[in-house]
Amino acid sequence: MNKKLLAEFLGTFGIVFAPLMASAAKTDLAIAAWVSGLAVMAMIYVFGPISGAQFNPAVTIALAVSKKQERSVVVPYIVAQILGGLAAGLLGLLLFGGAFGTHVPSAPDAFVRNIGTEIVLSTILMAVIFAVIRKENPLAPVVIGLTVVLLVMMGGNITGGSMNPARSLGPDIVGGAQTLGSIWVYLIGPPVGMLLAVMLERVFFTSSD
Predict the structure, then answer these.
(1) CA–CA dist 97, 53 (Å, integer)
(2) What is the pLDDT of residue 206?
(3) pLDDT at residue number 207
(4) In terms of C-beta distances under 8 Å and separation of at least 24 residues, what long-range contacts does 71-79 make, across chains too?
(5) Rounded to an integer, what distance in angstroms lies between the CA atom of residue 8 and that of residue 74?
(6) What pLDDT digit, counting tens, does each position of 59-95 carry?
């Protein structure tokens, strides 16, 4: 278990720190999307054989609800993921002297738009994850990474395209009050979206026999 938790910590650190560095370099949305997706791809290749490479509390919850993993790992995995994201945010503060890679909606008061965007993006991401699990696709890291690229491009100018509470929480904690005001969007939207994907998985791919 200790190796699995370390893998989740380091993998989450990697997928948070990569776009954080892109943010510090003031890259545009397209580059940020590719950085995010390629980081996810790389971390899955590195840590997938160890922990399953979840790196996302919403994914961990969805897999447990869908009975694709033991529920006993849920809390330890989530703690490791959140700590990994926070470590990335703190290292960014140390290296670049500010809070980078934070997620704040472009229109913070647009409740329905913001939460709806994160729900839709997260549903799509989790549906793809279920698809590669069903097919045992050896190219799963590539498929998931490219999906992240697409989804960040879709939602980046609206919410940042988080789809991951740990991805947003670490940098936003470092950002303080200016960024934490909208953190609920990223704590609620991704889990709701991924649980919707669980429901779709049951409707379309679970036998009624």
Answers:
(1) 30
(2) 78
(3) 65
(4) 73/1, 73/4, 76/1, 76/5, 77/4, 77/5, 77/8, 77/51, 78/166, 79/5
(5) 12
(6) 999 999 999 998 999 999 999 999 999 999 999 999 9
Q: What is 9-27 written as a DSSP string?
A: HHHHHHHHHHHHHHHHTT-
- Could you give the CA distance from residue 82 to residue 68 in angstroms, rounded to a whole number? 21
pLDDT per position as a tens digit, 20-65: 999 999 899 999 999 999 999 999 999 999 999 999 999 999 999 9
Query: pTM of the predicted model, to two decimals?
Result: 0.93
Question: How many Å apart are CA 179 and CA 169, to the nearest integer?
Answer: 9
Domains of the chain: 2-205 (1.20.1080.10)
